[in-house]
């Protein structure tokens, strides 16, 4: 099995190239390619082009690996390594011209099933800010070469982030979850990119993050960033259609989990 360090460097190199393509295409003007689960769940031509670039690089340099991409699906490989890719996470931000979008690339041991995979390496690149978050299993989490750590004290309350699904029928339930957790918070952010939200937890820019209904490609890289930065990431209700993901330092993670158990 290739080392986590090598997979991390490989993911970082591809994420930079893919992010630059996404940034160039955004500057040229974005065209809508299709809608998916709802009218709000969009895919742009750039999403497809960026994922094709990532897949071509992976196929050329690691042809036997498995792949799961948000736009092109994929399948298991023969090497025991599977790449889990979101070419543009924060697609709606990207389409509207907001800078909070990222390329998320993760390598896992096993298949692309978050209930059984073992994260090995991850890279999340935000091209507008030129910020590259990377992690290798057992090697810590880094931002542009600086070591990252989650926060552990939130005396003024926690700075939390969350997100909402594309299906409007889920919004009431998600807002109820926000009400359950808000007593722990000093404030709440909704950035629009799960990969960046998780990267920010790893970097201590957020104290915690929770969201229902994320897809594997949304969190595969960010999950490892948080755990390698000393945090805890868990998924609740994994048998449901919309599992809950919680990411934070250990004390806050326990408080968020406890708050979700309370009726309001
Ligand atoms: C997005 C996530 C975000 C979530 C959005 C959407 P996409 O991924 O990163 O956290 O709230 O509903 O799922 O669709 O931009 O790749």
TrEMBL record:
Similarity comment text for this entry: Belongs to the inositol monophosphatase superfamily.
Cofactor dependency: Mg(2+)
EC number of the protein: 3.1.3.25
InterPro entries: IMPase, Inositol_monoP_metal-BS, Inositol_monophosphatase-like, Inositol_monophosphatase_CS
Catalytically driven reaction(s): a myo-inositol phosphate + H2O = myo-inositol + phosphate
Source domain of life: Bacteria
Designated name of the protein: Inositol-1-monophosphatase
Keywords, in A-Z order: Hydrolase, Magnesium, Metal-binding
Pfam families xrefs: Inositol_P (PF00459)
């Amino acid at each position: 099995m290739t080392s986590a360090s090598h997979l991390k460097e490989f993911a970082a190199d591809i994420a930079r190239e893919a992010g630059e393509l996404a940034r160039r295409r955004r500057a040229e003007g974005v065209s809508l390619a299709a809608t998916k689960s709802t009218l709000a769940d969009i895919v742009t031509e750039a999403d497809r082009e960026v994922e094709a670039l990532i897949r071509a690089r992976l196929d050329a340099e690691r042809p036997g690996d498995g792949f799961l991409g948000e736009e092109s699906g994929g399948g298991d490989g023969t090497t025991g390594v599977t790449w889990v890719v979101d070419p543009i996470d924060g697609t709606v931000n990207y389409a509207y011209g907001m800078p909070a979008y990222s390329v998320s690339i993760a390598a896992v041991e096993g298949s692309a099933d978050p209930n059984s995979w073992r994260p090995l390496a991850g890279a999340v690149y935000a091209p507008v800010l030129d910020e590259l978050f990377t992690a290798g299993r057992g090697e810590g989490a880094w931002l542009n070469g600086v070591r990252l750590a989650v926060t552990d004290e939130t005396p003024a309350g926690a700075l939390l982030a969350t997100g909402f699904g594309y299906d409007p029928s889920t919004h009431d339930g998600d807002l109820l979850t926000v009400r359950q957790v808000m007593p722990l918070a000093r404030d709440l952010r909704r950035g629009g990119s799960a990969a960046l939200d998780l990267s920010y937890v790893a970097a201590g820019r957020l104290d915690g993050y929770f969201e229902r209904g994320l897809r594997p490609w949304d969190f595969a890289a960010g999950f490892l960033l948080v755990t390698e930065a000393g945090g805890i990431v868990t998924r609740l209700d994994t048998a449901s259609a919309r599992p809950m993901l919680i990411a934070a330092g250990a004390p806050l993670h326990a408080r968020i989990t406890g708050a979700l158990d309370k009726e309001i």
